[in-house]
Amino acid sequence: MNTTVTLDESWKAALSAELQSPYMGELRSFLKTELAEGKVIFPKPSEYFAALDLTPLDEVKVVILGQDPYHGDGQAHGLCFSVRPDVRTPPSLKNIYKELEADLDVPRAPHGHLVSWARQGVLLLNSVLTVERGLAASHRGRGWEKFTDAVIARVNQLEHPVVFLLWGAYAQKKAQFVDSSRHLVLKAAHPSPLSAHNGFLGCRHFSQANEFLEKNGLEPVDWQLPEKL
């Protein structure tokens, strides 16, 4: 997007056509104008592509899809559901931890920083990568969805099988870009307190993901987050 943005080389190569496309040019102009008008955008520009930067394309084993970034001060840092180490764990992430504990007996982490997962090949991707402070969904329809469609399509083309965890109707729209005969697509309700009891809690997606990875000769994910960062 600009010189402050970091993006792993594997993704730069795979998405070069998207990054140079007219719609991304329009998105760049939109973000530049918003910032010039003094609007606060989350996350900061250097973290727009943090999910792609932390998880190189050929290392992706699991994809977790969010909607758009947290819109509160100090929360978003470019990974879906994740917050900075010193920020209170949001309700949806608390439910993710609750399911992890029930499914794999993983203790609930005292923080909401998910970088450890990203470094193990879990692509923590939001469908929309920016948001205006205090205004949920404010950057939908600006081009990010098309870009993240391309990200999912590129992961779908990987030679090794990948697990897609699609929680909620918004994330499940991306399933159209995934060949479910090669990859494992697991769907459930969103972990938000508003919907978690409608099928997210009890879904056992984490154990199913690891079983699939091991069955296909891939290293399972250690879902237990480090206590200290």
Explain what this protein looks like in three dimensions.
Excises uracil residues from the DNA which can arise as a result of misincorporation of dUMP residues by DNA polymerase or due to deamination of cytosine. Residues 53-213 form the Uracil-DNA glycosylase-like domain. Its EC number is 3.2.2.27. Belongs to the uracil-DNA glycosylase (UDG) superfamily. UNG family. The active site is at residue 68. The protein has one domain (9-216): Uracil-DNA glycosylase-like domain (Uracil-DNA Glycosylase, subunit E), CATH 3.40.470.10. The relative contact order is 0.17. It has 9 helices and 6 strands, in the order H-H-H-E-H-E-H-H-E-E-H-E-H-E-H. It is 33% helix and 10% strand. The radius of gyration is 17 Å and the shape is globular. By secondary structure, the protein is an alpha/beta fold. Helix 8 (169-172) links the parallel strand 5 (163-167) and strand 6.
